[in-house]
Chaperone protein HtpG (Mongoliitalea lutea), 627 residues
Amino acid sequence: MQEKGTISIHTENIFPIIKKFLYSDHEIFLRELVSNAVDASQKIKRLAQLGQYSGELGDLTVEVSFDQDKKTITISDSGLGMTAEEIKKYINQIAFSGATEFVEKFKDAKDANEIIGKFGLGFYSAFMVAKQVEINTLSYQEGATSARWTCDGSTEFEISEGDRKTRGTDIILHINEDSEEFLDKWKLQGILDKYAKFLPIPIKFGTKSQSVEDGVDDKGEKKWKSVEVDNIINTTTPIWTKSPNDLKDEDYLAFYKELYPMSEDPLFWIHLNVDYPFNLTGVLYFPKVKNDFEFQKNKIKLFSRQVFITDEVKDIVPEFLMLLHGVIDSPDIPLNVSRSFLQSDGNVKKINNYITKKVADKLAELFKKDRKVYEEKWNDIGLFVKYGMISEEKFAEKGKDFTLLKNTNGEFFTPAEYKEKVKALQTNKEEQVVYLYATDVAKQDAFIQSANKKDYDVLVMDSPIDSHYIQHLEMKEEKTTLKRVDSDVVEKLIVKDDGYANLLTEEQSTQVKEIFEKAIGSQTYSVAVEGLSPEEMPVTVTMDEFMRRMKEMAQMGGGMSFYGAMPDNYKVAVNGNHPLVDKILKTESAEEKEKLAKQAFDLALLAQGLLTGKDLTAFVKRSVEMI
Ligand code: ADP
Ligand code: MG
């Protein structure tokens, strides 16, 4: 019995097209064929459970092997097999709605997944690496005979009698010249490790040596010998398929080490498990995150029924959760379609929301359970939580209860607690509560000291996300503004009443202003004489909060190029009530006046960390002369 026919697809020859367009992803042929073998094995199991198959199930291990001389790769399973009729039905009639549509679509396809999934071409991905494909199969059905199908990559195929004696299927690939790299142990092992490591049916690939007992020697000591044993490459029940109740911390940590051998232990983890309204399981780990965003990305692996699909989960996981590590497995994520489709897919949106909620709940639970421990972890999770607060409204709603603000004394507060703490002392005359913050505790020390002297509290906002988080806080907290502690003299940071009067006359003020302008001699600084406490510094150099933020944003590419192009502009506040100003006014020599003014100005720059280079050298020299 032999039969010839034509694969029912009306385009002349789709295989050259497949080969050409799917070039970059050739290795996925193995994923497709191994998962077909696994599907066939699971189907026979299921049929047995349903009582529709009463034969022995036997060993269902799927075997992948290769022959360098014959140039073949073979994938064998003991699954349900196919009859000749079924081959014609499932293999020959390529499952897509029309050749025309296919040809239309492949033109825009970016990767193999897109075409393979959409058009049910999993099996045909074999032709990316094979010049001829052979199926040798025996169906589980009573009285079935073995069937062999061969196809050389054209639309012609041949069906004849096969010689498979036991239930199941061999897929034999005759590897083409361009793909001989796949006839290599390490290459194949690598691909299997990537895609098949957690498949639910054991996958055997070659052998490995193992030490086994070999009787005893003359002294009665055990003897050992090395034997070749089957190399099963996968774990069939990875932890995400198990119930959280059956798992211990060690299990989660061991799995993490298996996924990321080089990483430090994670901080904590979340076991995802939902089956309605979509099906999703997984384990997400919180890694120790430092400041490096990019470095941490692409650490979540996406699976579909334990088949690895991708570690680019960009559209499935909310942006801020991309810092997490771990696995997500969902048969409901449409894996094989284009990204734009993913974004508009309803399930994806729901999955997104679900994960966000789970993560927020976990953090809330940790915060409630042991606040001390949570605070200790804040350094590592703070960046991530703030990122979530800013980027996901849903997360922000819950997150405000477990976000922490840290002050310069190392104490932690939730935003609500913090407001309670500073409200009384730090409310200005416009009824705004002013939070002060430092971005560099060492550099801004002089300003922090001044603020502390007034019993003001100063927050530490030194992570890369903080400039955004500050704006978020101002938006969320009513009647609250944040000011960097060095953005003005302390009296002006929180103006409660009209403060000290400037004891100088208008004429004296003008005179002082001119002396300083001359001494400074730069447009970058605008001088103002103000009435401050005589205890404060004679001169303070500050940069306006608003201007600074605009500049920072322009630098980060916020599109405000107008501000980015502006030169730095500092305010120089001369304390009209300071004894030094009085001294300057009383000094006779104009040269001496200017020298004093310059010295006071340089001291202010020094406190801000702005005095560098030649100016610093000149300052030191002048100071030595003066003492
Ligand atoms: P899909 O797996 O998405 O159905 P494929 O192109 O990978 O699409 O396979 C087409 C069909 O061929 C499968 O649905 C199955 O019926 C049949 N098939 C493929 N490989 C095997 C196998 N190893 N054993 C039994 N049937 C198979
Ligand atoms: Mg398939």
Q: What stands out?
A: The chain has four domains: 2-205, 239-375, 404-493, 506-626.
